[in-house]
Model the fold of this input.
Amino acid sequence: MKRKFIAVAASISLIFSGFNFVGGNEAHAESLKDKIDSVKEKQSNNSSKQKEIKKEIEKIKHNQDLLDAEIKKLDNQVAETENKIAGKEKEIANTKEEIDKLKVEIAETKERIAERDEMLKDRVTAMYENGGSVQYLEVLLGSKSFGDFLDRVFALNEISKQDKEILDAHKADKKALEEMMTEVEQQLNELKDQMKELEALESDLKAQAKLKNELLSELQKEEEHKHSEMGKLEDESDLLKKQQAAFEKEMKRQQAAKNSGSSSTPAVGNGMFMKPANAPQTSGFGSRWGEQHAGIDLAKGGTVPIVAAASGTVIKSYYSSSYGNVVFIAHYINGQKYTTVYAHMRNRLVGNGASVKKGQQIGNMGSTGRSTGQHLHFEIHKGDWTQSKSNAVNPNNYF
Done:
C-alpha cells in the first residue's frame, strides 16, 4: 500500500513538473518573438531613415547641379560683360584721341584766323586813313592807259575777293570743327554712361556669383576651394582618353623637333617649369582644412595673363562646373611625363590638341566655377592626371 502511494505521488509530481516545463518554454518563445519583432522594427526604421537620407542627398545633389548651372551662366555673362567693357574702353580711348586731334586743329585754325583778321584789319585801317577814293585816284593817275587802269582795278577787286573767301573759309572751318568737337564730346559722354552701366552690371553679376557660391558652400558644408571635390570632373573618362592622345602627340612632336635639331623647350625661366602667373601665392601644396590640396593658388587683381608652365600639348580646354575655365596640358620632359592643370581662368585662348610653348599665354586669371575670388589654381602631376591625384607634386619644387 505504501509503495502504491509513493508511485502515485511520484506520478502526480511528474505531471505538475511537466506543466511547469511547458509553461517555461512558452514564456521563452514569447520573449524571443518580442526581440525579433523589436529588431525587425529597428531594421524597418533604419531602412526608412536610409531612404530619407538618400532622398536628402539626392535633393542636395540636385540643388548643387542647379547651382552649378547657374554659376556657369553667371560666369558666361560676366565674361561677356567684361568683353563689352574692354570694347567700350577702346572706343573711349579712340574718341579721346580724336578729340585731342580736333583740339589741335581748332587751335591752329583759330591762330590762322587771328592772323588773317589782323592783316585785314591793317588793310582796312590804311584804307580808312588814306581814303578809299584816293587809292583809286592814285591807281587812275598812275595808270599808263585806260586798259592798265582796268587791270589795276580788277587786281584790287580780286585781292579783296580772295581775302574775303579766305576769311569765310576759315570761319566755316572753325564752325565745322566746333560742331565736330561738340558731337564727339557728346559721344564720349554717352560712352562713359554706357561704361558705368556695364560696370554696374558686372558688379551685380559678380555679387550674384558670390551669393551662389556661398549657397553652394552651405550645401556642401565645406570650403569652396576643397579641390578633392573640385577634381570630380563631369567627364573624367573623356579627359583620360584625350590625355593618352595628347601624350602620344607630344612625344611625336618632341621626336620631330629632335630629328630637326631644334630645341623642343625654349629657355624661359630658370627651372623645369615656370610660374604660370605673375602673382603672389596665397595657398600652398599639401594638407589644408583636413584635405589634400593638390596644387597651389596664385591670386592678384586686374587682368593677369596665365601662361603655359612648359611646352606641351593641350589635353583638354573646357568649362567645368567645379574648375570653371580649365586647361590640362601634357608635357614630356627628359623622358618623363608631366601634366599641368590651370583652373578658374576668366577665359581660354587655346583649344584641345593645340601645341603650346613655354611662356605662351593660354588665358587670363579669373574666378569661374566653384570660386568666390579671382585666383589661379595650378597643379603639376608627375605622370598622368588621375582622379585620386596620386601623382600630384609640389609645383614650387619645379619652378
Summary: Residues 1-22, 222-231, 264-269 have pLDDT under 50 and may be disordered. The CA atoms of residues 139 and 149 lie 7 Å apart. The first strand starts at residue 281 and ends at 283. The chain is about 60% helix and 15% strand.
